[in-house]
Design brief:
The chain folds into two domains: 300 residues, tricorn interacting facor f3 domain (Immunoglobulin-like), CATH 2.60.40; 122 residues, Neutral Protease, domain 2 (Orthogonal Bundle), CATH 1.10.390. Helix content is 26%, strand content 25%. The two termini are 29 Å apart. 48% of the residues are buried. About 7% of the residues have low confidence. GO terms for molecular function: aminopeptidase activity. It is an enzyme of class 3 (hydrolase). Keywords: Aminopeptidase, Hydrolase, Metal-binding, Metalloprotease, Protease, Signal, Zinc.
């Protein structure tokens, strides 16, 4: 997520310029069905979605969202949006691995009108109460099931638990002209499909969206064929729910090639976002710089969609950038640096995802450090200048918000998890030197690709790969109420 304005406002001027697809295998009709399937249900080969297997845990910061009782392997979403009636009609097919025996399934879901629910082809009862869809059917640990939920209704958002100056309601947002957009960190995917809405449960996705003539639907993943007003996207790398996106509007499309020929797509609204197109076209340059630091871009495609927001989000393979900040040349330059920040998240946050929201610093510290290193190289300011800025800002943020390793539930993604975590990485960089530090960063991304990680696993990785004990340094910078010496 874009660095909050309360932090960027404190940056010294010199630091700111303004902040081939592999298809998922088709299910086999001849393989044996899971034991929990009904006798009339078609056989399903759940091995087709094993890349979406996770080990979900209950989130300590937002325990009301998500569950550790199930592991969604794959979401198949078929959506129809009517800009005139403002009604979303959906069919969500979830391939689920229960993690323990249970009398029912429970998922996060906004209270849409539920039209039909089946489990392994058999009709079951599904009820939505207090933003939870409960399916009254027993399941058995490690015996996968297929849940299909058909629904319709008018989208609603959910409050963001933060005091950021750019904080907006989360989830699927309807625009004045009947379009859609969504940003949903730390949660909000449940406002448009039934979801295990927490970071530890990543899954594969197939998203298909039908819109009227003249409208375009943009989603996370690799773009597929679009025909007859239906747009298709597929994610063959696992995706956390907060990293999915959906935008519907009267979009114009620009295509480009990134490093090593990676296909890039930029979506903008003509007459509204035109001044941002040249900045989006810097994407190959940004990606090339990031690859030199952190290794190959981790996905098979990339892109940017501009929406009617004041924020930005590192949604996987299709970054969602708010266009509301584009009213001056200086702010547009800052928008470009924010875009580099979101691209950095494709390595840190998307490819390697935190297991829970206590470790948001593991995303934002890396992306913020990348952002400031790029700005430093571009503007030529000194290491001493960067160090001075980090120490001064770190002290203010710890005093106001506390340490980055102990975030508060009502202060999501505020400045401490950005700059204070960046300051820790800066100290690690200085202790190791550039060559060893960036080799460590590249190894972290390469070896942990498509996994969920924690503070403990990061510390263990650093110590093992450097042959030194950095436990004290890392913990001090993550837990100290004041800036460590």
């Amino acid at each position: 997520m874009r660095r909050p304005l309360l932090v960027t406002a404190a940056l010294p001027a010199v630091l700111l310029a303004g902040c081939t697809d592999t298809p998922t295998p088709a299910p086999s009709s001849s393989a044996a069905a899971g034991p929990s399937a009904s006798a009339s249900a078609p056989a399903v080969d759940y091995a087709a979605w094993q890349a979406g297997r996770s080990t979900p845990v209950a989130d300590p910061i937002y325990p009301a969202r998500g569950t550790d009782a199930l592991d969604v392997l794959h979401y198949g979403l078929t959506l129809d949006w009517s800009p005139t009636s403002r009604v979303l009609t959906g069919s969500a097919t979830l391939h689920i691995r229960p993690t323990r025996d249970a009398a029912q399934l429970s998922l996060d879901f906004m209270p849409y009108q539920v039209d039909a629910v089946t489990l392994d082809g058999a009709p079951v009862t599904g009820a939505v109460r207090q933003e939870k869809l409960t399916v009254a059917a027993p399941v058995t640990a490690d015996r996968p099931v297929t849940l299909v939920v058909k629904y319709h209704g008018k989208p609603r958002t959910t409050p963001m638990p933060s005091h950021r100056s750019d904080a907006e309601h989360l989830g699927l947002t309807v625009t004045k002209d009947g379009g859609l957009w969504t940003m949903q960190e730390p949660f909000g995917a449940f406002t448009w499909y039934p979801a295990n809405d927490q970071p530890s449960d990543e899954a594969l996705y197939d998203i298909e969206v039908r819109v009227p003539a003249g409208w375009t639907a943009v989603a996370s993943g690799v773009p597929g064929e679009d025909s007859g007003g239906t747009f298709r996207y597929r994610s063959t790398d696992p995706v956390a729910t907060y990293l999915t996106t959906l935008a519907v509007g009267r979009y114009q499309k620009v295509t480009a090639a990134g490093p090593r020929g990676i296909p890039l797509t930029y979506w903008y609204r003509k007459g509204t976002d035109d001044r941002l197109v040249p900045i989006m076209k810097r994407s190959p340059k940004y990606l090339a710089w990031l690859e030199k630091k952190f290794g190959p871009y981790p996905f098979s495609s990339g892109g940017v969609v501009v929406v009617d927001s004041a924020s930005g989000m590192e949604t996987q393979q299709m970054i969602t950038m708010g266009g509301k900040v584009a009213n001056s040349a200086k702010r547009r330059e800052g928008w470009g640096i924010d875009l580099l920040h979101e691209y950095a998240h494709q390595w840190f946050g998307d490819s390697v995802t935190p297991t829970n929201w206590r470790d948001l610093w593991l995303n934002e510290g890396w992306a913020t450090y990348a952002q400031d290193l790029y700005t430093q190289e571009t503007n030529g300011f000194s290491d001493a200048s960067l160090d001075r800025y980090l120490r001064e800002t770190d002290g203010r943020l710890r005093k106001k918000l506390g340490p980055p390793g102990k975030p508060k539930a009502d202060q999501f993604a505020e400045g401490n998890v950005y700059v204070c975590a960046e300051a820790m990485l800066r100290q690690l960089n200085k202790a190791l030197g550039d060559q060893k530090f960036f080799a460590l960063a590249r190894a972290w991304v390469a070896e942990q690709r498509n996994t969920q990680q924690t503070r403990a696993s990061f510390i263990a990785f650093v110590n093992k790969n450097t042959g030194r004990n950095f436990t004290g340094l890392i913990n001090a910078w993550l837990d100290s109420p004041t800036t460590p010496k």
